[in-house]
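Posting for a labmate who doesn't have an account.
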Amino acid sequence: MDVLERHLTALGFHCRRLAFEGPGGEGVHARIENLYARRGTASPNLCFAGHTDVVPTGPSDQWSAQPFNAEVRDGLLYGRGAVDMKGGSPPGSPPCPRCWRKANRQAPSPS
């Protein structure tokens, strides 16, 4: 999340962290943090939604492949996060400068 926030800030976004925690602060109520980034104040808004939180694996013997070891079997990738939203969150930001140029709104280049 720190990397994404630095990248978006360099592109001119105002970023802020939003923290949420349920009663007890553990398990499903554990503290999570979200990043809200906005560039400008005009409408319309474009929103990329994703998550970076991690849920406990539970007993590893109940997995068909070890959760933290990527394994390719019969041409398919197995492992925790092989098909997950986290892969889409950071890649969502690099296309932004191209989109602004197409809309004739020059964005600063990321550093």
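Reply:
Got it, the structure tokens are right above this. The chain has a mean pLDDT of 74.
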